[in-house]
Specification:
The chain is an alpha+beta fold. 37% of the residues lie in helices and 17% in strands.
Length: 105
């Protein structure tokens, strides 16, 4: 999924950060197309790839998603740090670091 997120950068959105969690994904980005279309494309492509990898079929993601507009530099900084640090709460091993991508790292 991380490759897919990076590949769509500058096409569908400007990617700032993401963290892949066991049951959800945190994204910090600026959409370059409509948000519903962007989410449809992202969920569709990733569902197909994950299902193929796991030899599964059917729905993978919840129909809805939660979004919040970033209103200030402080809000951006707090959100970026949250996304960066959230995977580290899962465990202290090195694998947790690979769950995070940030364009300012």
């Amino acid at each position: 999924m991380s490759t897919q997120l990076k590949n769509a950068d500058k096409k569908d959105y400007e990617l700032c950060a993401f963290a892949i969690m066991p049951n959800h994904v945190h994204l910090l980005l600026k959409p370059l197309i409509s948000l519903p279309l962007m989410m449809q494309k992202m969920k569709g492509k990733s569902s197909k790839q994950i299902n193929e990898l796991l030899l599964l079929s059917g729905s993978l993601w919840a129909r809805s998603y939660y979004d919040r507009a970033i209103r200030s530099q402080k809000h951006f900084d707090v959100t970026y740090q949250y996304i960066k640090n959230n995977p580290l709460k899962l465990c202290e091993d090195a694998d947790s670091e690979f769950r995070f991508y940030g364009c300012f790292e």
